[in-house]
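quick one before i forget lol
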Amino acid sequence: MTTQIIPAILTDDSQQAKDYLLEVADFAEWVQIDVMDGLFVPQESFELADLIGLPEIEKVSLEADLMVQRPQDYLEICQKVGFKRVYFHLESDVNVEQMINSLDRMKVEKGIALNPDTPVRKLKPYLDKIDAVLLLGVTPGSQGQKFKNKTLRRVKKVRVMSENIKIEVDGGVNMGNAKEIVERGVDYLAVGSAIFAQGEAEDNFDNLKSLTSNI
């Protein structure tokens, strides 16, 4: 199994978001956009509308991590931008079944995200109705945090509950822990600061791919 490395863009600056997209569009298949409303998490992100019509979006597939209180209010703009996968948080103010149905009608991949302290058993009623699970390795909202090692056990628990569900880990992923995370059975790794903070993004991306391939 080869785990997919997904550059994650978390910023309140739309120009920085565009620059990051331009930087990774030639080598990444997927890119994650972190969406924050200042309510579900203290931080706010840039306006998603600023991405509409960007040529870079034609080169990559976008996924959204909706770290917002009312994810249902963001579906229209997600569709306009052209997201292919949308995660909403189980802890948000949402009717889960209705949200899944709405994403189904949008014909995008459906995902549920879980904060580190939310028991993974709460996913069980929905695993046969969604495509992917996003497990946060840090408290959501800011980059550069230390990875919570209990996430490794959480990955294993989700995999026991479902052999087929796609599992993504996001937050605190770096060169030092990526291999160990993948060994637990992860399909996707969302990586922010370890790709963008230092050095060349493409070199960092390639190094992560080498570390995690064919495990």
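fyi Strands lie at 4-9, 30-36, 61-67, 85-89, 109-114, 132-136, 166-170, 188-191.
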